[in-house]
Amino acid sequence: MHPARALSHPAWWLALALLAANDHLFKGAGVLPPALTGKLSDFAGLLVAPALLAVLVRARTQRGWLAAHAAVGAGFAAINLAPAAARAWEAAFAWTPLPWAITVDPTDLVALPMLAVSAVVLGRWARRPAPVGAALRTAGLALGGVACAATSPPPEPPFQPQAQFPWVQSRLVVANRSAVTQIVRVRALRPGVQVDCDAAWQQPGELLARELFSPAQTWLLDGGRALPVGDGTNTCGAFLIDGPEIPARLVVAFRYGPVQLSTDASRVANDRALFLDTDADGLAWAPHPALFLPQDDALEAPVGRCAPVPDGFGVSWSMPPVGTAVILDHTAAPDGCHAFDLAFRDSVERWFACLPELALPFGVEDTVRIGTLNRGQSGWPVDGVTVEGPGGRLVLTRGADLPPLGQTDVDLDTCERGARDACGGYEVALTASFTGPDGERVAASVGEPVLVGASTLVVARAVWSLAVDTACSAGPSAGGRWFEAAAVTPLGAN
Amino acid sequence: MRASLLSLLAALVMLAGCNDAGDAGAAGPASPGPAQPAPNAPPPVSAGPGATGVGQGGAQDFGLFRQILDAGQIPAPGTLDPVGFFAEHKLDFPAADCGDEVCLHGLLGVQRNLITGAGCTVVQIGLNSPIRLENLERPPMDLVLAIDTSGSMRGVAIDAVRRGLLRMLDALQPGDRVALVTYADQAAVAIAEADAVEDREALEAAIEGLLARGATNLYDGLYTAFGLAERWRTPGRQSRVVLLSDGVATAGLEQPARLKALAEAYARLGVGITTIGVGTDFDVDTMRELSEVGAGNFYFLDDPAAVEEVFVDEVATFLVPVALDVEIDVQVGQGYLLRGAYGTNAWEGGLRAGRADIPSLFLAGRQQAAAPIEDGRRGGGGGIIVELMPLRDQSGVRERELVGTVSMTWTDPMTGDRLEQSTRIISPHAAGELPEQGFFTNATVEKGFVMLNLLVGFQLASQLAYDADVGTAIGVLDALRMEVRRWLQGNPDPDIEDDLRYVDLFISVLQRQQSQTPVSRPPEPWPVD
């Protein structure tokens, strides 16, 4: 056994080169993630050190060869498990020109299998009868010794350059490739905003109105730096980004999962970077699939059956006074709202109900029974109120379903284009069609009474919501349907 | 609230648009100087102080904006209503000698903006009237007062309302009819119908008997008041509801959209509405919108004591419309494009033409711009400012001197006749040319130009502060302050001087905020959203 022969193995030299390059070139340069550079030296070092030790102690037997490996392994394990051992090692090297600084990290023990690789692969090479040149032996000893001794640089001061270029968890980064510091304003969606993300990816300009975004976080972004956008918690990874010199763009990043990204503009992967470059007209965005133009102009609203319902049109009511009462007075205003003065046993209360034009099955001096309803035709939740009078039952509903209409199938047809609401939300009109037991099919246009079975139904609003600010509009959630409707059913029917 | 981002957009469009015309001359803002007539220029017209301003309804002040600044806070974007801001500025348009009771003026201004120095071309649309308020003979009116008597009105507010209503009785005339509706948990009719003079005692007793308690059923109050007004409606008489509230709806139909739909429906029947918001807890947007759809005015009274005056003001001036169903059309010359309009919420425009449909025009209170400002609202009447963008390529433009045409049609409230006026705006300079000292048809355009810069500066600063860019917000206002001060040295004006006070106040509020939360480079590690 001639351990010096191991120093001629290409793998040993390769490990030595990797150890030196990693310790003195890669670490802190931002080329590779810090987690990787930290482990690379351990793997390479455990291939270099045992053979070196075996040569130095002149091990001539297999047992000596293995003992050298065991000694390196034990030392390595000790300084990565026991702080006292690490500090003792540091103290031992403190007087040398190459002081050590050891970070106790048990996860470094993952590199220990390299000892087995060394023992087997280099050991087989060491048992070969071929001679080893003195020059190669000397060079190996010298370079290996220096590389191992100088493996850890001294502790870094708190504000070393690499601390300014951290890696952060993010979907994308805005990378400033200009030489000038830029003011960048980043707006995430408001907390109460819900958006159908697939639809937002397809038509971001239409769905993501400016009103849906929060106040900006404003950053000064130096040239060469990158700003993370989206840690994975924000809705659809959607942002509105602009600045005094930066053209406004929508970013929809939900298709990019959060990963560790460099905040150094020159080191971030191209597919994760929204680059800002200088061109003849000033600052410009480089093309990227997640960048979209905001659509600030009012959208051209669809017409006909797909037209948006005007504000103030719909079905609503004041808190219903549940119970049996006599209608003392009934008036109606031109906005479609009715006021009923209701005499209960102990009090008179005024109740308002707003609905499209519909013949009511009760009038002044009639006795009515008022109740509430929480499920619609298909069992979906609704807010509902029922008023039973001598001529029949009036049902008013707001929610994810239409009023109960008996044995009737409901089909919904969605318009291709939608419109923005007053809160910046986006919704697409629906048309409901009804097929009764007799197979007859009728479609309900908004505001038009239609006979469905024995009931007369008026749909005041039927929409599929793709973006909604729930803090602003009392209505559907995104990706959900919303109906406001009134139905009158004669007594005895259903 | 949602108008906030649109406001920024408007402000940025304003500044960006002006950049396009800034090719000539050096960069940097310049104070508007005296108009420089070119050899072929139309003679500058003289202002007509003494003509009564005409306002378009909607917000009559920017009280909320002032109140927030006075409290040392930063107004949110959208707080400053352009209509209210303009309405507090009296513009002395040329003499109202058109022969009608409303005179239309279209005036030109070309100058660098006071914030970035980019060139601006604006057309100021002014309306005034030869009617003198002291000589005004108004037709009899039907007035329904809907007064919030919820618990929050208890104390100073309800006392001020009582005093204000009693003072208003003095301003009413024989033949005027009054009804009084109160609303808290429910609405109640305190006086269903009373002659303002003959039934004075009953009215005074009802007013003195106002008590504050309970919730705020705004819809019921409005519904009941409109119902009474509609029942009275008679051709030849003014019919109007005055809604006073200090809070948001907490009972009945609470959705603001329902209130708006109700006001809109009755406006179509000829019953207007004026809204008065008292304190700081009411829904400003809803009250403003009600007045806009209801062909009336909106008053923001952060000090309840100001309620005492507002009923008298309303009866004395604003309840007298001088024009109904007003349509103002603007057509730009071939050398220009139309960028936008300020000072009206009724604007709808394209690149070549735009229009504003205004339900009613009213007489404004102040006769001259130089008249001193009393406490509270300044009055004035305001105007509409339209921004134009000169085309870079002027080849093929035939009438190069024509900037645009402004026309107005309206219905005379007394006769029902449909009337029309129009005016052509001619420039002595080529489109896009920026004279060193600027060009203004008359001095009032200069004032309008400064007003516009102040409006845009305030809006921009609010938005920037909202976006945590306080440093830039201060920069905007600093630039504005310097130029406005310079302008005031040669053009003393109480309105602009008062505005400048709020520029200074805004800056100091921002500086205080900046010292607390400086904008800086992202900390390490940077926060991610």
Structure description:
The complex is a heterodimer of chains A (494) and B (529). With 494 residues, chain A is an alpha+beta fold. Chain A folds into three domains: 3-149, no CATH class; 165-292; 316-489, no CATH class. Chain A has helices at 3-6, 10-26, 34-56, 62-81, 83-93, 113-126, 134-149, 197-202, 204-207, and strands at 167-170, 172-176, 182-188, 193-195, 217-221, 226-229, 238-242, 249-252, 259-262, 273-279, 282-285, 291-292, 316-317, 323-332, 337-343, 348-354, 367-375, 381-389, 392-399, 409-414, 419-420, 426-435, 441-444, 450-452, 455-469, 480-489. The radius of gyration of chain A is 38 Å and the shape is elongated. Chain B is globular and about 70 Å long. Residues 1-49, 372-378 and 525-529 of chain B have low confidence and may be disordered. The two termini of chain B are 24 Å apart. In chain B, a hairpin with a 3-residue loop joins β13 (347-349) and β14 (353-363). Chain B is 33% helix and 25% strand. Chain B has 529 residues and is of the alpha+beta class.
Number of E-type strands of chain B:
18
Instruction: Please name the two chains that share the biggest interface, counting residues whose Cβ lies under 8 Å from a Cβ on the partner chain.
Output: A-B, 56 and 43 residues
The residue fraction in helices of chain A comes out at 10-25%
pLDDT averaged over residues of chain A: 84
Oligomeric state of shown chains: heterodimer
What is the H/E string of chain B?
Answer: HEEHHEEEHEEHHEHEHEHEEEEEEEEHHH
What is the strand content of chain B?
15-25%
Low-confidence stretches of chain B: 1-49, 372-378, 525-529
Structural class of chain B: alpha+beta
Tally of helical segments of chain B: 12
Shape of chain B: globular
Distance between the termini of chain B: 24 Å
Report the principal-axis shape of chain A: elongated
Largest sheet of chain B: 11 strands, antiparallel
Q: Bin the helical content of chain B.
A: 25-40%
Would you identify the regions of chain A where 5 or more consecutive residues have pLDDT less than 50?
154-163
β-strand percent of chain A reads 25-35%
